[in-house]
Amino acid sequence: MDLLTDEEIAAALASLPGWKRTGDVITRSVELADFRAAMLFTGAVAYLAEDANHHPDIAIAWNRVTLTLSTHSAGGLTAADIALAGRIDALG
Amino acid sequence: MDLLTDEEIAAALASLPGWKRTGDVITRSVELADFRAAMLFTGAVAYLAEDANHHPDIAIAWNRVTLTLSTHSAGGLTAADIALAGRIDALG
Predict the structure, then answer these.
(1) Positive or negative, the Cα torsion across A13, A18, A23, A24?
(2) Nearest CB to A35 within list B50, B59, B60
(3) What is the ipTM of this complex?
């Protein structure tokens, strides 16, 4: 899978307002009601990740879930990261 | 809840070989078969955390789950951390 250019990444993130780029990764931090809600959200993300065969790093700190996406095999950001970010945002 | 002394923490960790202390926290990193197995392990940890009303920070990176325990309200390590670490280890 091809790496996206800086311009392609910036254009994609314009439609993904919760996500921020830091170098070769994009991250989104979501605050839920409590730990249980954070785990349920994580379960939904995990389902989408398995479906896409593309897995974010996931950090859970009580009611906060931080997701980090990158395509390690490509060494940076690809269309797979943007696609999964979009599906995660569609969870609401 | 009272903070444990350095000696009490060292004594407790002698029975919890997977856990390492770094300052005010203890951590354990577990490698599972794959992402699905990591999520199932995380679910079991989450159940124990809710049962104990004490929640580790959880970081999932594909097949690796890293747990970090501390008692934020006490500003360091307490018996609650040691007890939950023991219950997590009892998962096998």
Answers:
(1) negative
(2) B50
(3) 0.96
